[in-house]
Amino acid sequence: MTRLLLAVAALALVASGCGAADDDPNLAAAAAKTEAAGSSRFEVTGEEASGQERTKIGCTGEADYAARRVRLSCDYGSQGRMEVVGLGADTYMRGNVLGFLGVSDKWVRTTGDDSLGDEFSPQTLLAMLRDASQSTERLGAEAIRGVDTVGYRLVVECEQAELLECDAQTSPVDVWIDGDGLVRRISVSEGSTPFTFDFYDFGADVSIAAPPAADVVDMEKLVQPKPCSMNAGSPLTGEDVSTALRGHGIAVAGVDQCIGAAVAVLVTPTPSSDSDGFLHCTVSRNPGASSLSGIGGTGLKSGGVGNVYCAYSDDLAKRMEPAFVELQRQIHP
To answer: Torsion angle, CA of 76/17/148/34, rounded to 10 degrees?
Structure first.
């Protein structure tokens, strides 16, 4: 869930990069003028890398800059959907991609110093990228959603600009400004999280309110550790998975604490043992809940069956595949 939200937030973070370069004050003015419009709607398209997989992300939303409020709805393809509402320091999330927390119909609330509304504020984020920009190049004219614009390319320091997972120390950020001086598009094409962010309907009548209190649950209550149960889960239990993995020569052990919808966690023994690879599997209460378990990373493979999701190193791949086949046969003999 955190990666998914960060992916969307990252798109917003660069959104105000449009004004980043000190050597072109028109860009800086465009960021301020865009926010001064009071509100806008937006559309985000991009990709998120997770291990060996890439997920296409599509979001639509609207923002009230003055009130620090934002609402968006995101589609993560086969991984599901998520709605997000940001009100000041409070962020509410709902969707089937949150199944790994054991909820899908409730709004999950987090509270912090950083406002999602601020992240969608061009003027707030302008400060981040102004200092991070190394150079600016005029790209030329292009029509964006039927509006004539002029494009500029900024080269930014990735770490300073807080861009996620750049392939190098710097990255190009393209921004398109219309004849009224409003930001219309920001695009990052390099790195592992490319995206395009479009602004439109400036000054739209935007009304964003908090979800009903009865439909809200706090994140802190969902992530409290609890004892694991190796004999729980459906259609596969932790014991089912453990037996299948060991039958294919993969040493696994259970852990003492589980979080969210996980009822069992299986890992390879500690590096000091005779383990020859990395493995982390979650067994959830019901199918689908483990599909976004938050595990994995660069260089790891991932897969699952039923209510089981695993991330593992390449040297275990040849043994994991027949283990998954065996578990699938247990579900559908």
So the answer is: 100
Q: How many CB atoms neighbour CB 255 within 10 A?
A: 14
DSSP-based three-state secondary structure for 5: helix
What's the CA gap between 152 and 163, in Å, rounded?
18
Type of residue at 7:
A
CB 62 within 8 A of CB 73: no
Beta strands per DSSP E along the chain: 39-50, 53-64, 69-75, 81-87, 90-94, 107-111, 133-144, 147-157, 170-178, 183-188, 195-200, 216-218, 226-227, 253-254, 257-258, 262-267, 279-284, 301-305, 308-312
For the stretch 144-179, pLDDT in tens is 999 999 998 888 777 766 665 666 777 788 889 999
Spell 116-134 as b/e; 16+ CB within 10 A means b: bbbbbbbbbbbebbbebbe
Query: pLDDT tens-digit profile of 5-62?
Result: 444 444 443 343 333 334 454 677 888 888 888 899 999 888 776 555 677 888 898 9
* Nearest residue to 156 (alpha-carbon basis) of 128, 135, 133, 186: 133
- Cα(150)–Cα(289) distance, integer angstroms: 45
Query: Dihedral (C-alpha) 306, 310, 314, 318: value to the nearest 10 degrees?
Result: -30
Residue 316 in tokens: 């275990």
Distance of alpha carbon 82 from the chain centroid: 10
- Contact (CB, 8 A) for 153 and 173: yes
DSSP type of residue 203: T
Token pair of 12 as six digits: 């917003």
Query: Alpha-carbon distance 282 to 300, whole Å?
Result: 15
- pTM beyond 0.85: no
Q: Token pair of 269, please?
A: 């023994």
C-alpha of 2 from chain center = 6
Please tell me the least confidently modeled range out of 2-6, 107-111, 229-233: 2-6
